[in-house]
Amino acid sequence: MAWDRNQMAARAALELRDGFYVNLGIGIPTLVANHVPDGMTVTLQSENGMLGIGPFPYPDEVDADLINAGKQTVSELPQTSYFSSADSFAMIRGGHIDLAVLGGMEVSQDGDLANWMVPGKMIKGMGGAMDLVAGVKRIIVVMEHVSKSGEPKFIPQCTLPLTGRNVVDMIITDLAVFERPDHASPFRLIETAPGVTADEVRAKTSARYDA
User: Fold this and answer.
1) Fewer CB within 10 Å: N-end or C-end of the chain?
2) How far apart are CA 86 and CA 25, in angstroms?
């Protein structure tokens, strides 16, 4: 059985480490915050200038002035700090963020990522993804294994405008997990969702990878 969105986020949360500073992208990655292991200290950072993001608030606790980079309302913690977006991007570009978990439209077998636009469709802007893939120490992409039309999203070469070249370290889909030890090595299939076979993953993947 394929993982659902929360299970994909929970799998991504297993990659967190105590003391990490982490940036979570829009969509499934935001759910990672709900699965931080008990007893682990992880500080969430947002491009719009917030360090130490708390959990999503209950309806009666919403503060419209407290939002993450995806325009979702969030809560603050006793240790939360605020600063300009310029300082926030300096933090990212300076290599001070340990891990970013991002969504993806396509990932190539060489680790290229396309996740910010589909030509011809309205977009709000490129956001901070290009800075994140260039400045963060490790990049995990969480996405559905195939598109709504059933086409593979882990493919030989991206067809959509790129966010970054050779930047992805791990891919987590609803079917499987792929990882590579460095950016010169191919991806390797390291895990499948319960009940999903390696043959099923291969049939729905056009990218080259090691088994």
Assistant:
1) C
2) 18
Q: Write down the catalytic residue from 15, 47, 106, 179.
A: 47
Instruction: Look up the pTM and report it.
Output: 0.94
Task: Tell me the per-residue pLDDT of 76-130, one tens digit each, with 9 for 90 and over.
Answer: 999 999 999 999 999 999 999 999 999 999 999 999 999 988 777 776 666 789 9
Q: 154-155 and 50-53: which strand pairing?
A: unpaired
Backbone angles phi, psi at 32, to 5 degrees: -60, -30
**Nearest residue to 139 (alpha-carbon basis) of 90, 178, 174:** 178
Q: The tokens 């009940």 sit on which residue? A: 195
15 counts as catalytic: no
Q: What are the backbone angles phi and psi of residue 24, rounded to the nearest 5°?
A: -110, 130
Asked whether the beta carbons of 30 and 53 are under 8 A apart, the reply is: no
CB 9 within 8 A of CB 28: yes
Among candidates 178, 151, 182, 177, which has minimal Cα distance to 166? 182
16 Cβ contact partners less than 8 Å away, ≥ 6 residues apart: 22, 32, 36, 37, 40, 42, 99
